[in-house]
Input
Amino acid sequence: MKLRREKSQKNKNGKRLFDKFKSFKQDVLTLPNLLTSIRILLVPVVIILLWLNTPGMRFLSWIFYTVASVTDFFDGYLARKYGTISITGKLLDPLADKFIVNLTLVLLAAMGEISPWPVIIILAREFYIFGIRSLALEHALVVAAGRSGKIKTVLQMFSLPFFMINQATLLEITGINWDPSGVGNFLVWSSIFFSVVSAFNYTREVKKRVFEEK
Output
């Protein structure tokens, strides 16, 4: 009888382990998460090619950056269309966006392609939001990103190619003598406006739910 109970317990443990593995597989191994992972893997490729700082390498960096940006659209679209929104995806997707945007901005500032001030403001806002989110998580709160935050991300992602393909690169590849950084700066500073608005809205929402709904 004891042997039978032990065997039954082993079967239950094995089934639980199998169910956990199956749940993990269903949550992680999805097409949207695969696209998000590709975007993360492309970040060092974009950074290294841009750092090499030749017209050809900058152009390749822009191509890989564009591919990464396209995956950002399709992973969310496919997750919503096929109902495969997962916990892993909710974690990885914003991280992938921050990796490729913030690291590229830091490198561009180090290369003198963009003023460090907007980069400092953008990074300071990200650290601030991280702190606010940590406070929210301590109270088991999940506050979704608002429209202004999404607009901020889109503007930043659209701004980077106007710095990656600088005047020298554009002239050598296309023969067009034009400095695109003016457009890039306009988009970056526009994103900062929405960054401040989204940070204010996020703070107000967390303050209301943590301190005023008790």
User: Anything to note?
Assistant: Residues 143 and 206 are 7 Å apart (CA to CA). Confidence is low (pLDDT under 50) at residues 13-25.
